[in-house]
Amino acid sequence: MLGWVSRRFLLGPVDGPSGMSLAKFIIGMIFALAIVVAWCYLDGASPGTTMVCVIICAAIIQVGYFLLVCLMVARSVPTSAEKAREAERTPSADKAAEGEKFSAGRGIH
Predict the structure, then answer these.
(1) Residue 1 pLDDT level (bands cut at 50, 70, 90)
(2) Is residue 101 part of a domain?
(3) Is 21 helix (H, G, I), strand (E, B) or coil?
(4) Which domain, by its residues, includes 29?
(5) What are the CA-CA distances from residue 96 to residues 38, 61, 82, 87 (Å)?
(6) Rounded to two decimals, what is the model's pTM?
(7) Considering the domain boundaries, does residue 50 fall inside one?
(8) Neighbour tally for 40: CB within 10 Å
């Protein structure tokens, strides 16, 4: 047991067409960073330059993943609970009239 964090939260698929999970993302990121390290090594870069390239590549991957998740959330269809909350926030004309009928003159003087 992982405490309050369930295994499904850590390794479950993200809602989307690709079925991407956190484990797949981490493995893909490590693979991409290994390619950057090999490329820098074969190019003859110093260890410091290689480290800077890896950090820059990791930052670009993280920003891209964040933007992808934001896009997926923005395109998602609202759930029934979200629709119910939205309906409560924007009352229709008949609900507003009914509310006025029952709330008029009920203030404390």
Answers:
(1) very low
(2) no
(3) strand
(4) 7-77
(5) 66, 49, 21, 12
(6) 0.53
(7) yes
(8) 19
Nearest to 1, CA basis, from 10, 12, 25: 10
Residue 94 is encoded by which pair of tokens?
A: 């008949």
87 part of a folded domain: no
Given a contact cutoff of 8 angstroms between Cβ atoms, the answer to whether 100 and 93 are in contact is no
107 assigned to some structural domain: no
Q: Which tokens go with 61?
A: 């991957």
Could you report the per-residue pLDDT of 72-109, keeping only the tens digit for each? 888 887 777 777 777 777 766 555 555 555 555 555 65
**Tokens linked to 58:** 């990791």
Q: How far apart are the first and last CA of the chain?
A: 58
Tokens read off for 28? 């893909």
For 10, what's the count of Cα atoms within 13 Å in the CB-facing half-sphere?
7
Alpha-carbon separation of residue 103 from 27, 89, 90, 96, 107 (angstroms):
59, 18, 18, 10, 8
